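I'd like us to work through together how a protein chain folds, taking it slowly. We need material for that, and I hope you will provide a protein of your own picking. Go ahead whenever you are ready, and we will take it from there:
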Amino acid sequence: MIAIHHSNKTDTRDSFSSRWILYCESRKLSFILVDCYDNKILEKLRGVSVLLWHAYLRDNGSFLFATNLIRAIEKLGIKCYPNLPTYITYDNKIAQKYLFEALDIPHIPTQIYYDKNSALTAVKSAEYPFIFKLSSGAGSNNVIMVKDLRHAEKLVEKVFGKGMPSINRRAIINDRLKLLKQRRSLNNLWSLLGSIARLIFPSKLEKSSPRISGYFYMQKFLENNKWDTRLIVIGNKCFAVRRNCREGDFRASGSGNPSYNIDNFPNEMIKIAFLCAKKLAMQSVAFDLIKDNDQYVIIEISYCFVLGDFYDDCHGFWTENLEFHKQKVDPQKFIIEDLIGS
């Protein structure tokens, strides 16, 4: 029996769970729908062998209990997606830094300081520009290029003072305004208007999220990267998309400007993705790669990723022997088949 987390509050028609439901229905697999926010969820999972749950960073409250719930579910002998090794570093750039260092995974040099004096000392001898980030956030939100000492000292004062909002709504509005100017479309207009509305009427998640403080995250800025590469490994499959940077910006994540030409993805890059996925022992992992001189390095990772046609438009996938298969890419199908097959 398969259990699928599907809550009307958090799942849309085109969600991970919706695609899992369609997969099970088309193959006549037995499944039940559950809500992992239910107080009696463990009781309702008894007799189930597999749980599929797209624990998403925008789900209000999932960060409060997801790790502990996954641990409890696995203690019941239930195979869970995501399992603990897969979920534990999700939307946590600090955790990723230490894991990369421990596993000797090529990554951008990163320093983190946990007290104000250490951070102020570090920025005085820093190489500028460097990249400041908050540990959580997607789509390049709260990713800032720090160009000089004065700017760095202001950020230090802020993160060891009143803190910073977990979602920088004004930065999102600026990004979407730039996107609308570059590509005038109804979708981009609605996206901008929605962000402005959220500034006036914040979401439940924004209202309940505390300001972030207590650490200063510095990452080396690597010049001359006009794009990054998103590679996703699920089991024995890897698929990829190049994400071009925003016009006049160093950031690629959230740019909405993808390229799928397979000539953009050399074998060396695919090898790194498979090798690092094995080291991390994750059920699914999305790598963001750029170049540091002649070496590919990882910016950050995530166990999950956006839906829609962003990956559906990939031309195919590679297997570990580096053979390319020109077949439809269906990430949610890959996830459920790999989990059941295991």
Q: What stands out?
A: The longest helix spans residues 186-200.
